[in-house]
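Researcher: Next sequence.
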Amino acid sequence: MSIGRLVESESDERLAESWVRHQYRALSDGEKMSIVHIKDMGIGLIRAIEAGVPRGREASLAKTKVEEAVLWAVKGVTDG
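Model: Next structure:
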């Protein structure tokens, strides 16, 4: 995988090469659906924060925590 090339997180193409992990496993269809759902929910919450919370430190922290929650949730799915 070259830098700048985009691969969908639920795609099996991510198995080809990694800069960090040495091994990936193929995900089941259910795991792929879970990842998409988790990320969609994260995007929805970030959009709600952007629409309803005034810009500032609190909004920035809230969005960062959503991103972190998505990261850990996806990691939980993929490490299983």
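Model: Residues 28-79 form one domain. Helices lie at 29-52, 57-79.
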